[in-house]
Design brief:
It is a single chain. It contains four helices and no strands. By secondary structure, the protein is mainly α. The protein has one domain. Helix 1 packs across helix 3 and helix 3 runs antiparallel to helix 4. It is elongated, with a radius of gyration of 14 Å.
Length: 115
C-alpha cells in the first residue's frame, strides 16, 4: 500500500512537470490572444502526455498495471475542478476525458506487460 502511494506520488510529480513543460512550450509556440484555440488544444495534449508519463512511472515503480487509470482519475479530477471554476468551451470539456483515457490505455498497452 505504501509502495503504491509512493509510486502514485512520483507519477503525480512527473505528470505535473510534463504538463507544465508542454503548456509552457505551447505559449511560446502560439503567443498572443489570437491563438487561444491552439493553446487549449495543447492543454488537452499536455494532460494526455501527463497521464502517459506519470502513469508509466507509477506503474513501473509499483508493479501495478492499473496505475495509469489512477493517474487518469487524478488528472480528470483536476480538469473537472478547472472546468467548474473557469469557463471552458464545450469541445474541451468533451475531449478531456477521451484524451486522458486514451493516454492511460496506451500506457498500459505499451508498458503494462512489463510492469
Amino acid at each position: 500500500m505504501v509502495r503504491n502511494l509512493g509510486s502514485l506520488a512520483a507519477g503525480v510529480i512527473i505528470a505535473t512537470l510534463v504538463a507544465f513543460i508542454v503548456q509552457l512550450a505551447s505559449h511560446e509556440i502560439f503567443p498572443g490572444p489570437d491563438a487561444l484555440t491552439e493553446v487549449r488544444v495543447m492543454v488537452l495534449v499536455s494532460w494526455a502526455l501527463a497521464v502517459l508519463a506519470g502513469g508509466i512511472v507509477a506503474m513501473k515503480l509499483s508493479g501495478e498495471v492499473w496505475m495509469p487509470w489512477a493517474m487518469a482519475g487524478l488528472v480528470l479530477a483536476f480538469a473537472a475542478f478547472k472546468f467548474v471554476t473557469i469557463t471552458h468551451p464545450l469541445w474541451m470539456v468533451a475531449f478531456a476525458p477521451m484524451s486522458v483515457a486514451l493516454a492511460a490505455f496506451v500506457a498500459i498497452k505499451l508498458f503494462g506487460a512489463k510492469a
